[in-house]
Design goal:
The complex is a heterodimer of chains A (about 100) and B (about 200). By secondary structure, chain A is an all-alpha fold. Chain A is built from 4 helices and no strands. Chain B has about 200 residues and is mainly alpha-helical. Chain B has 11 helices and no strands. Classes of the chains: A mainly alpha (about 100), B mainly alpha (about 200).
């Protein structure tokens, strides 16, 4: 591999979040990967940033109300009925005209 | 009998139960992050699904139903709040994005140097992190929640928030920096980590 793909520490840090988020591909991804594999200064930072992202994800949990699905479902069924009743009314009006 | 009823849903819109309803928990979590309280989140999640159901014909099959629902949810939230600053965001240059990326990395590097044993990660309880996320300014919180908690890609977040991808990156990195800074201050105050520069 030629040195053309080599990036500086600053360039690596600039792209580190995008790399951790899985947003880099192709040559950009390979450049960051190669830099992290070779740079003893940047790898620990990458490792800590990645750990921070996982830490936030792992420690945030929201309990969804147990009956929310049922209530949403009932509202949607009510919406179906409302539309159906509206169609029936319109049909009856058209017969009356 | 409709196609939806054949699939066992009982709902009139074909495919809605199979494609949209599985995202109810995610929409509720997003609603909770937007509103900051459970009662409003409950209402917002219900409103989102009602709107989605009414406009189900506009959803393009094969695209991300989750992003579509998050977009509806965010728009409903903004309308509810009568937010006027929705279009205030500007295009963020690559330079600005890079500056934010470096700034957030710097905060984490400082925490790392203050806490080489990484006790930082083991110290918090969930409610402390939830509270820190809730305190982030709206636009940064939304980017962090959509990426870090819900796992959306940058393009999907751009779609939901109706902003360019460059702005997504900038807000996400800044949101992470603000969150890391807030947690670091809290951890120092509580004695979880040493803090300061020695």
């Amino acid at each position: 591999m030629s040195d053309q793909s080599a990036i500086t520490c600053r360039e690596a840090v600039e792209q580190l979040w995008a790399y951790i988020d899985g947003e880099l591909e192709g040559a950009d991804e390979r450049s960051v990967e190669a830099h992290l594999a070779a740079c003893r200064g940047c790898y620990p930072h990458y490792d800590f940033q990645r750990a921070f992202r996982e830490f936030v994800r792992r420690h945030t949990s929201q309990t969804v109300p147990a009956d929310l699905r049922k209530r949403v479902f009932l509202r949607l069924l009510a919406e179906d009925r409302r539309e159906h009743d509206g169609e029936v009314d319109a049909m009856e009006r058209s017969f009356d005209e | 009998m409709t196609e939806g009823a054949q699939a066992g849903s009982g709902l009139g819109r074909s495919g809605f139960e199979e494609e949209a309803l599985p995202w109810l928990d995610a929409v509720y979590r997003f609603s909770l992050r937007l509103t900051g309280n459970e009662a409003e989140a409950d209402d917002l999640a219900q409103e989102t699904f009602l709107r989605a159901y009414r406009h189900w014909s506009t959803y393009t099959r094969g695209t991300s139903c989750r992003s579509w629902l998050f977009t509806i949810c965010r728009n409903a939230f903004l309308r509810g709040r009568e937010r006027r600053d929705r279009r205030m965001e500007s295009f963020e240059s690559e330079l600005e994005v890079a500056v934010e990326a470096i700034a957030s990395a710097k905060v984490l590097a400082e925490i790392q140097s203050e806490d080489p044993e990484r006790s930082f990660f083991d110290s918090f309880i969930d409610s402390e992190i939830d509270a820190a996320i809730t305190r982030l300014p709206d636009e940064f919180r939304q980017a962090v929640v959509l990426s870090d908690l819900e796992g959306l890609g940058y393009n999907e977040i751009a779609e939901v928030m109706d902003i360019p991808v460059g702005t997504v990156k900038s807000r996400l990195y800044r949101g992470r920096r603000l969150l890391a800074t807030a947690l670091r201050e809290y951890a120092t105050e509580m004695g979880y980590i040493r803090g300061g520069t020695e």
